[in-house]
Each structure stands twice: as structure tokens, then as C-alpha cells.
Amino acid sequence: MVNINSAEEIKIFDTGFVLDSIRKLPDQVEQAWKEIKNLPTPQECSLSKNVVIAGMGGSALGGRIIDSLIPERARTPIEVFTQFHIPKYVNKDTLIIISSYSGNTEETISDFYEALNRNAQIFGITTGGKLADLFKQNNIPSYIFDPKENPSNQPRFGLGYSVAGILAILSRCEFIFTLDEEIEKCITEIRKLTKEFDVDIPENSNLAKSIALKIKDTIPILVASEHLLGSAHSFKNQINETAKSFSSLFDIPELNHHLMEGLKYPAKAKELLNFLFIESNLYSPNVVKRYPITMDVVEKNSINYLKYTATLETKLMQAFEIMILGSFVSFYLALLNGADPKSIPWVDYFKEKLK
């Protein structure tokens, strides 16, 4: 176990520069937003009737965050697909964003070929690899970026590129209306939060450290709603990959129709389960009132829970708030577990076996 209050110990242990990447989330957002503003877009993307975001793993997280964040702001449906095949309805009237951090993701390459064959409006987001070559060969508008603000070079720590990149292209294609001022304010607020969650702030004043300590040696069950579901999905994934810990995610109000009846057995599970409720004053009133009642049900089943309330001003800011919180909590939990926060040995093993 690494002392999460010792910058020196953490620096020695974190050989993959994960902490540096987490700190640079606002810089990633700033870089992607500025760079995409000057890039060409699909010629008729503003006329598209729907949007599909195709990606896997860390490269899909940005799409999930956008998907849950902006339903009321988008003029057409926006959907995320993490499969080998895109939906049948993708055609020349569809804007499809092909997102792969490495550019070599098997499923996403398959999606690209299908979208190309259907004459869809394609925009690519990648750092290189086979997809970068395919984008160039087929004259596909794309954002092939230098991940200079992600020294770990792990997709899950480059979320700023994905989220800001997707937001920027959707704004350029007139699917949503996002002002430069809104993004700039987000960047400012994320920088402040990064300092609040950073290593030099002790656990009694650091909510990220406090949460990590409370969920250590438990199974964290994340609960979120509406605009924060995508960020909570990212949080859950990072607990899996970064902290090498099991975690799951449920949403309110959906869980109120089934999960509460599943808390009784097996009795031994009660000792390990630990609910983390992610609250927000920007949830719908009908959703807000369900949180304390759900917590009451969890408590009556003798299961531990804790809560975090998003504090920032807008839904976009709160989405970034939960992203940065999840990154720090997962990093500290990895240190407490004595686990390398960068490596993903079983994912690598799986990919190697597929070859």
C-alpha cells in the first residue's frame, strides 16, 4: 500500500505518469476545443438527421458522457454503439463519429468500413494507427491529435480529448449550441477541482481521498442519473481498470423498479457492498426526491452507503466534475490496493489471445 498523502512515495510508484495525465484533463479539453475549430467537417453534416458515435472502452466513454449530457440540447438523436456492426439505419443522412484513441481498435475499424460503404457523413477522432491511415486515404475529415497532455498514453486518461472533440464537432455541425465562453468556464472550474483533489491536500479536506479510503476493500455500487450517468460510467470503468477493483453502476429512477428487492441475499454480500450516490441539484425534481428514499432502503438492508453532491453551476461542468473525481478516486484506490494504476494486464492478455 502506498501512502496517498506522500507525494514522494506516489512519484516513485506512479511510473506510468497517471497522476500527470489526470491533472491535465483541463489542458486536454482546451487543446481539443481549439484545434477542432480550424478543421474541415463532413460537407453536409449540418443536414444529417441523426448522430452515431462508434468506439470501444475508453474511446467510447466520451460518447457516453455526451449522450447522457445533452439530450435536451441536441436537435436530433445521439447514440453510442460499442459493437462490430453499426445499426442498419446508418446511411447518407447520418453523422457518424469514429473514435479510437489508438486507431487500431478492431471493432471500430469494422464500423468505419460499414459507414464508408453506406456513404455516411464520417468524422474521425484518433491519435494515429490504422484508422488515421484510412481517414487520410479516403479523405475523411478527422481530428488526428497529438496526445501531449496525456503522458500516460492510456485512453481512459485522455477523456478530455474525446469529450471536447465530440462536443466541438457536434457544435461545428450545428447539432448543439456550445459557446467558447462555456468551455472556458468549464476549464477554469476543472482546474480548481484538480487542485482540491490533488496529492498535497490531506484526506480530511480531500473528498477524492476520503471516498477512496471508504470504498477500499468493498464493492462500490455507483448510483447516478440523467446528465451524470455518462460520467458515472467513466468513474465505474476507472475503478475497474485503474484500481483493479470490481464496481457496478445503476441509475435512478430505473433501479427503484428492481434493484431494491435484490439487496437481501446473499447475506454475505451486505458486508462488501458499498453504495456511492452521486447527487445533483440539477436533476429533475422527481429524480431528486428519490435519492433520500433509496438511501433509506439501502440503510434498512444493513448496507453501507456514502454520497457525493456535484457542486458546479451547469450540467456540463458537473459532468466534468464527476469525471475528474472518478479519476482521482480510482488513482488513490489503486495506490491503497498497491496496484499499478496504468497497467491493464488482463485486457492485454485477452487481446493477445485474440491474435
Rg, alpha carbons: 20 Å
Task: Please give the domain count.
Answer: 2
Task: Quickly count the helices.
Answer: 14
What would CATH call the class of the largest domain?
A: Alpha Beta
- Provide the CATH topology of the largest domain: Rossmann fold
Shape: globular
Query: Residue-averaged pLDDT, rounded?
Result: 93
- Strand residue content: 5-15%
Structural class: alpha/beta
Describe what this molecule looks like in 3D.
By secondary structure, the chain is α/β, with parallel strands linked by helices. It has two domains: 17-178, Rossmann fold (3-Layer(aba) Sandwich), CATH 3.40.50; 191-337, 3-Layer(aba) Sandwich (Rossmann fold). It is built from 14 helices and nine strands. The chain has helices spanning 7-13, 18-23, 25-36, 58-69, 106-117, 129-137, 159-172, 180-197, 207-215, 229-241, 285-288, 290-300, 315-337, 345-354; strands spanning 50-54, 78-81, 94-100, 121-126, 142-144, 219-224, 248-251, 273-280, 304-310. The strands form two sheets. It has a five-stranded parallel sheet with strand order 2-1-3-4-5, with helices on both faces. The protein has a four-stranded parallel sheet with strand order 7-6-8-9, with helices on both faces. Helix 10 links the parallel strand 6 (219-224) and strand 7. Helix 3 (25-36) runs parallel beside helix 7 (159-172), helix 4 crosses helix 7 (159-172) and helix 8 runs parallel beside helix 13. The longest helix has 23 residues, at 315-337. The protein is globular and about 55 Å long. The mean pLDDT is 93.
